[in-house]
Design brief:
heterodimer; A: mainly alpha; 2 domains; 13 helices; about 5% strand; B: alpha/beta; Rossmann fold; 4-stranded parallel β-sheet
């Protein structure tokens, strides 16, 4: 291993702003409080050092920024206010998109193309909501733990309802695999007689662009949610993620 | 708007009424999701920890805290996309911190307000670390306690009209089930 010549420190892609690394005291508070310190030989303090010393590519190529859950304990406790979350997330940004681990980037690309991470078609989505609405209204729903539910006369899921007070995003895992779980909120809305709605398109509430360090996708998804709210005139967005 | 603010508003203003008997006498421990609390505090200056506990208490159970909790809470291990990432062993090892914390509380139930944390605790940690508790979303707790009152005939009629209009607009046709 070659010694670093610190007089000719390369400009680091991960130390864009002083508060990302330059102000670090190397006290190790971050590393002591981190549940994944030591995994693959990395820890938050080392990540900051790597950023400062121009060794960021080693961090970018490692699994560690993806095993770290960006929980923010390190940044919360840092006495120097080092922006560790931004740093780790940017290490993810610097990963080539086809090397993003697992399904995360595929989900982002799917969301950009089809409006949700799992690519559920609009027809299936609308039909599912209508079908579940009918079950709720008829009282034929049974809970996972044997709960019995009454019939909810008049219940249906309003889609793109003009003048709704609240517009609610949806986590695509629910229509895909756990549709009855959406009813927890629906029963509350029924009791509160809320004037609510869900979007017809672009209803995804899970922003994987946040996780993969993809700023364009992150912003686009937020833009769509706001656009949906404006379209129906909803003053409030409920984002249960 | 955060889920905590909305649930609190519904309860405080009497728009929903809760039957506490379902969870009374039970001990519940609350997992504080990083995004809802710590990162919300760091980004927007609001942490909603008190609202979360207030809403939970309205459902009847006694709250027993994990240590540490609140702004210093330990992540469930599946945050930041880890639930969908391929590093399962690492995610489960990370989650052992959470599982040990939960065990130490002696709680009967777990409240996990976030989708991702709930999946990690309910579907992964429960099995991996033999946790006996059932995990609830906070809105699931509230939903299970809400006192049900059917709408009036007039309200039902209005709702059906709106529904039929919407289904016509969207081309949704449900097949009528055959009656026997």
């Amino acid at each position: 291993m070659e010694a670093l010549d610190l007089t000719k420190r390369p400009k680091s892609k991960l130390a864009l702003q002083p508060e990302w690394a330059d102000v670090c005291y190397t006290c190790g508070t971050c590393a002591s409080g981190c549940p994944v310190t030591g995994v693959d030989g990395w820890d938050p303090r080392k990540a900051v050092r790597a950023a400062l010393l121009g060794l960021e590519q080693e961090l970018v190529d490692s699994r560690w920024p993806w095993i770290c859950t960006v929980c923010g304990r390190c940044e919360y406790m840092c006495p120097q206010g080092v922006k560790l979350n931004s740093l780790i997330r940017y290490a993810r940004t610097l990963r080539e998109r086809d090397k993003v681990p697992g399904v995360l980037h595929k989900g982002v690309a799917m969301c950009m193309e089809k409006g949700n991470n799992l690519g559920i078609p609009e027809f299936d989505y609308l039909f599912l909501l209508a079908d579940l609405s009918k079950e709720m209204e008829e009282g034929t729903v049974e809970g996972h733990h044997g709960e019995e539910y009454p019939a909810y006369p008049g219940f249906y899921v309003p889609v793109d309802k003009e003048g709704a007070n609240i517009i609610v995003t949806i986590n695509s895992k629910e229509p895909m695999g756990e549709p009855e779980d959406m009813m927890f909120w629906w029963r509350i809305f029924y009791a509160a007689k809320e004037n609510w709605t869900v979007p017809k398109q672009n209803w995804e509430g899970v922003n994987w662009g946040l996780f993969t360090g993809d700023d364009d996708a992150l912003k686009e998804q937020c833009r769509r949610i706001i656009e949906n709210a404006r379209k129906v005139g909803a003053k409030t967005i409920l984002y249960p993620e | 708007m955060s889920v905590f603010e909305l649930l609190k508003e519904y309860i405080e203003t009497g728009r929903i009424k809760l039957d506490k008997s379902r969870f009374e006498g039970k001990k519940i421990t609350i997992h504080d999701p990083c995004n809802y609390h710590r990162k919300s505090w760091m980004s927007f200056g609001q942490h909603f920890l008190d609202e979360c506990r207030w809403v939970t208490a309205q459902c009847g159970p006694e709250i027993v805290e994990m240590e540490p909790h609140g702004l210093n809470a330990i992540c469930c291990g599946a945050g930041g996309g880890a639930w969908a990432a391929p590093y399962e062993r690492e995610r489960l090892d990370y989650g052992k911190w959470k599982a040990d914390q939960i065990k130490a509380t002696g709680a009967d139930l777990i409240c996990a307000p976030c989708h991702n944390c709930r999946d990690q605790i309910m579907k992964a940690l429960t099995k991996e670390y033999d946790l006996p508790q059932r995990t609830y979303y906070i809105w699931e707790l509230v939903s299970d306690c809400v006192i049900f009152e059917p709408w009036s005939e007039e309200e039902v009629k209005k709702s059906h009209e709106e529904r039929d209009k919407q289904y016509e607009r969207d081309g949704v046709e449900l097949e009528e089930e055959e009656e026997y």
